[in-house]
Amino acid sequence: MADIEYDLVVVGGGVLGTFHAYHAMKKGLKVALLEKDAMPKGATVRNFGQVVPSGMNTKWQQYGRKSLRIYKKIHAKFDISVRQEGSIYLASNDDEIQLIEELKEINRANDYTSILFTKTECLRKYPGLNERYVKAGLFFPEEITVEPRTMIGRVHKYLKKKGVSIFYKAKVIECNALKNEVSTQLANGRMLMSAKVIICNGSDFKTLYPELFSTSDLEVSKLQMMKTKSQGDFKISGSILTGLSIRRYEAFAECPSYLKIKSKEPMDSLEKKWGVHILFKQAMDGGVILGDSHEYADADNIDDLGFDLNMDIDDLMLTRAKEIFSLPTYEIEQRWFGMYSQCKNSDIYERTIDRNIHIVTGIGGKGMTGSAGFSKQNIQQIFNI
C-alpha cells in the first residue's frame, strides 16, 4: 500500500540527510526520513564531534558558520549536546606559526573571529600540553563540539516533535520516478510516494544506483580513532588540532606560504603514508578521543580497505599524541574506524535523476561541520523556495 502524502522523502539518516529533512521541515514541507539501520551507524557517529569551520576553505567555511548557528539554535530549544568551548590549532615550529598567522589574516578579511595565542597562553589554557611541542596557537572561540554518538539521535527526536516522520530499519531497495512523483520501495514491502526524493547514502554504493557510483570519481576514506578511559578531574576544553592538522586542512591551503611549506615535507614519512594528523577532543564521559588516519579506495573497491584495525597506525598516533599532551592516562577504552565518501575532483557529489530524484553524498570530512549549512541552500535550490 502506498502513502501518497510526502513532499520529500530523504534516504539516509546521517547528518547530511537529517539536515536536509530539517530544512525541508522548516520550509513547511511534509517530510519522511528513512534510515536503513536501527540508528545511524556510519561516519556521522564515528567521528570526533568537532564542528570546525576554521579548517575549511572560504566557500565551505560559510556553510560551516551557518551550521554553527543552526546547531546553537536547535540546542537552545532541545539539548543536542552542544558545547561552545572553541577550537585551537597548535603550531609546533616556525613554518606552522607562519601558517596560523596567515590564516588569521584570511579570517579577519572573512570577518570570522580568531585569536593568536602565545606559547604561554596555550600552556595556561590547556594543562598537560607539552611546552617543548607548542610554539603558538590560533583560537576560534565560536566553534563547538557535539557528542557524535548521541547528537544525531537527539536531532531526530527534535524533528519528530516538529512533525517529521522518521522510519528506522527502513532499507530502500529502489526509487522510481513516475510522471509527477517518486515511488520509494522499502525492503519490508512498504512503498512511499513523494514529490521528490533526496538520497544521502554516505558510502553505501552497493544498494541504490551501483552502476552510477562505480563510474564516478567518488572514493572512500577509512579513518582510525580511539578513546581513552576517563581522565577523572582532568579537563581539555573544545577541539585541539595540531601541527599535522595545520599541514592538512583545506583552510591552510589558501595561505600564501602553504605550497612552499608543504614542498619541504618528507614524502616517505609514516604520517604521509597513512594520512595521520593528531586531534584531541574530550567526550562528556571524561575520555579523550584521539586520532586520526586516512586510507583510501575507489567507490568500486571499498572492500579493499578491510574491516581490521591496523595497530601500527594506532601505535603511531599514540606515540605522536604523547609527544603533544601529557594525559593522566593513555589507557585505551575503545578503538574503531569510520568511513566517509568524498570526490576526487569536486567538493561534493550531486546527481539528479529524472528531475525528482536527487543524490547528494561525498561530502568528505566536512559532514559534521558543513552539512547543516549546505543542506539549507540545497533545499532552497531543489524546491525553488
From TrEMBL:
Q: Which family, according to UniProt?
A: Belongs to the DadA oxidoreductase family.
Which UniProt keywords are listed? Flavoprotein, Oxidoreductase
Residues forming coiled coils: none
Does the UniProt entry include the keyword Oxidoreductase? yes
Protein name (record): TIGR03364 family FAD-dependent oxidoreductase
Report if keyword Flavoprotein is assigned: yes
Q: Indicate the segments forming the FAD dependent oxidoreductase domain, all copies.
A: 7-375
Cofactor(s) listed: FAD
Pfam families referenced in this protein's UniProt entry, alphabetically: DAO
